[in-house]
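Subject — a protein and its fold

Tokens — whole-number codes for backbone shape
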Amino acid sequence: MVKISMREMVVGKNASIGIGAMIVFIAMVLVAGIAASVIIQTMNSMEQQAMRAGQETTEEVSTGIAVFDIKGYVPDSGNMDNITITVRPRAGSADIDLGRVFIELANTDYKVIMTYDTAGSTAISLKEHNESITVIVHEKHKKIGYNHEGRRCGEAHSIESEWKKWRPEKKSYFNEIIKGEAIIGSKKRVYHVEPGVGYILNKPEFICQLAGKAEKLGVIIKTDDKIKTINDLDGKFIVDASGCPSIVKRELEMNRGIKGVTYQQTLENSNYFISDTLKVIYTGNGGYYWIFPRDPKKKEINLGIGFSGNFGYNLKNMLEEFKEEQKIEGKINYVTGGLIPSGLQQPLMHNNILFVGDAGVGTFPFTGQGIYRALISGDVAGRCIARGHPKKYPHIINQKFIKWDIVGKTFIRANCIFRRINPKLVLASLNYFTDVSSMIH
């Protein structure tokens, strides 16, 4: 006889899990998976960088020529009037174009520089008479700064460590920022900024400030000089700072990278004007709004909406709805918007063309901040060219930005998935990332 025992089930006493807790649990699992993939990708990226660095070091050490034999011809006059120098590449060296090689013979009294052909003699003559590099800036508008593209952003700018040389002069900014607010769902975070670090620029005037400094250094600025094709450029090196999308990259069909969209209104006499505070509001659909103070004399604000991707939304209608919900008032006196490059826009260099600003380094993937990145990339590109190492530009830029670029783009792609599942997942991942970032910093 088999005895079967059955335990009585008490109805109404079993545990249950709510949909909110389930969503948070799913978000934690997904975010953990993303974090793991980011670590793996970062390790792979660092390994590739190490391999490239090893290859570059090997090339620098091994590349070069060695003098193999020297023969001179001495006629009856007793003076040597012909010399033959035989050279060969060093072991492991790549091929060397002798048309670009200079050989120097010298003693205490004389120094002679020889070249393989007559092209080198022209370069020698130029360097003997002028050691400076000729730099030409092609500006498509009739006036620098004060044109319809001079204000295509929120105009926020920060100064930290190496960026201090780009501190805006008094007339080049409207307000100093000492506080920032980030609102993600129901959570509000307040950040305090040290004085002299954060600014809201008068961007057209700031561009004029930079142009004035460049002209004092001898840079030639050609206004009303629109470049329609790369065939219009004949410099030894070309620096493309034509924005997003880049004129050169479009022509070369290299217009890759993640691109978002923005729409911004400038409102005057606004009831939301607070001169020292930036405010950013993140939404569950993967977008964000910003409220930045502008000209205090007009009580202006830059009010905008942005997405790290183009999802087909009507940004103007969404901004109008946001204004109504938040009861934001003010008269519209300026409207702008367009594409915003999220993160690095590869390639950073093509042949003799270096891509800077929105054309190369893009904006910070999490906030859309791009002014400081544009300044850094331009400075690095100029330094690499002036020192004769333009090919180091991509390597240096990747060192500066690649880690956050990988994390940011992974985060953007994950949120594109989250927004389709449930907007709460987007907000949960944003809050998680913000908390982790605060602990790191």
The first strand starts at residue 65 and ends at 73. DSSP finds eight helices and 19 strands in the chain. Residues 19-62 form the longest helix (44 residues).
